[in-house]
Specification:
The protein has 502 residues and is an alpha/beta fold. It has 15 helices and 19 strands.
Amino acid sequence: MNSKREAISFGRFSSKPQEKGDSKHRQGQAYERILTRYSDKLTRSERFGFGVLFGEGESGFHGGHLAQGGSLRAFLDKLKSGEIDPRKSALCIDEWSRFSRIEPDLAVKLLSDIVRSGCPVVIHNPDMWVDEASISSPQFIIISFLLQQAHSASKEKSDWQTASWKGRRERADGLTKENVKSAVCPTWLSVEGNKYVENEKAPLLRQACELSTAGYGATEITRTLGNAFPGLLATLRSRTLIGEYRPAKREAGKKVKTGEVFEGFYPALLTVDQFNRLQASLDSRKFQKAKRGKFVTCLFSGLVFNADGVGMVIGTVHGRKILKPKTGKFRSLHYSVLETAMLDLFLDIAPEDLFPALHTADLATELRARIVDKQKQLTELKAKYLAGGSVALLDMITTVEKQIDNLQAELNGEEVKASVGRVDTLGATQDLVGHLAGLTGSDLLDARLRLKALIRTLVARIDVMIWASTKCGLVVTLANGKEVRVGETTKGGQMQVTLRAG
């Protein structure tokens, strides 16, 4: 009779970039050494040998290996279902930091649950065979210390990264008066001493922005100024032009923005108004294939869709501007009807009509209250688990921790600022609409460019469901579900429009 236990391998590493290193190779060697060292007790597993239960990009500190779909969670589920017999198996791991870096009390409870089920845990470095008898032996003091050490190392690293971002945030306001964090910066800036300063490319880029705002395309600009900025369109779209810095972090090997925005981080090349005009000019050419005229033809380029969900583009029939579907034979729309009605609508609507969430008096207060509730829930879940709760509670703990992180990022990020910024944007739009009638020539062009940029920040989509003749009223369904009638209903009928906020 074979009395040897099945040696089940478990391993992981925290981030995808570690694939390029030798972490997985070293853990594979550790498994082989455990088999050699305990050849009298263990036999190689044909089902769960090295690499089967291996988590790539699973954080031990944040409990990624214990979440649903995680590698260690898979082992625990198989142990619970009986697919793995704890009396005939042993869990083999390279070192304690691979097992877990979660809070020590939770890690100890997890280890205790595994070994009390009858499945020993075998560690390569330091050499340890941990079974139920070990829990009541002096060896367990060493194990607790090593689990504490694994958690502390990750927490120290996490705290250091948090402090690093905090320091960067503190330097974001008036950075030129402080020490520069990094020499990495936009190509039109250089580092001199402790300041970001414009270099020889800045005047060229400023001129490129002016030409683009005036209607010139990237090809013509490059031909005129030279190829000083490869990827010019991306540069013209970048908010670093107005001095903003948006940090990002690596997740699963990809660069993801954190949601934070630091205004005034770099010296601004353009004012906010100049930047908005530039974006409106770029947007106006995005959907045009013919030569651009001297007038901003459509204020709603890329925003209007018909009942079939097909985008509407600007065109001309018998001298009249129309919006026609990109594909299909759906009816066209007289553009002037939509523009007149929509501008009248903007004069009368309130912020909560476009952004229902703004009815909350203080979004920040609401977010803080939700964070407190989640923290209470987290404390209760941890207490239940430590009192003998099931392993499934670890998945819930991980989920709640992520929810707290997301709420905190929302509190520190753009959403709170946006609740105020949207109100200001709507106010600026209403002021501009009120002054359009008295403008002509270049002043009118500039105003329409600014208006177009403002509208795109307020509105994500305009769905036109039904329309009739050139003279008709509008029934507009706003983002909060409220219906508003604009214009007089004549024999031409009514146009039904749904407005989706940006």
